[in-house]
Amino acid sequence: RPRHPGTRTMLPLLLLLLATAHSLADKRYVPTLATSPLGGLTTTSTFVLEQPRCAFTKVQSDAVIWLVVAIPEAVANFSNSVGPGTPERAFQGFPASTHAYMTLNTTLRNYPCPKPPGEITVLRVGSETSCATDETRPTCNGPLLGPGPYRVKFLALNGSKPVAETAWSKPITLKTALPPSSISATGSGRSTGMIALTSILSILFAVLLAGLVAMLFFWGSHARGSSTFSKPEAVTVRRYNTHHVYDQPAARL
């Protein structure tokens, strides 16, 4: 059967598309939460990821690596062709109207491979608060509004063209803030009786201390008063020479 004239032209294009699809589908790197001993790997609005070191070894150095944060329902239908900064990828609409956003863009040279020994290489997602409501910054790394769960992946773009990506992470759930009503009033496992006893003892100690201060003040005032009134007055004694008066002989009559 004779071939269609356009078959020879379409065949290389199909092979190129299959190669491109295969390169994007080669997702051996899976984003994970950080394992560093810093603590606070997940909070009520943030989480910490390991940097994707050695995840894009076949990508040109001028490629830009983006982090994609999505709700689990958006993973199956996520389109790499929708670029960052568009309304469909803006943080300010996440997760109500935007089911996935793109943030933390950087060049591949900031993710050198292999990782230098002893270096902490992590990314904190949700650390920017100043741009959370600023619609002029749709790629804001703003705090997450709920516990999730969330799933993330890294996507490499050469201009606006996707050239490589990682696999999606496992679901990441943040911590949930406790309501005020659930916080125990006793605190640290102490009973109400212990708190009352501690309060009474504190009051008694304060009264005793005030009495001691007043007593010391009284003693000091008394001591100063006694020294003032008991001080002997200076007495000046003049020395007189006594003139003896001799009896005059009786006037003779």
UniProtKB/TrEMBL annotation:
Keyword field: Membrane, Signal, Transmembrane, Transmembrane helix
GO CC field: membrane
Signal peptide residues on this chain, from the entry's feature table: 1-25
Presence of keyword Transmembrane: yes
Membrane-spanning intervals of the chain: 194-219
Name of the molecule in the record: Uroplakin-3b-like protein 1
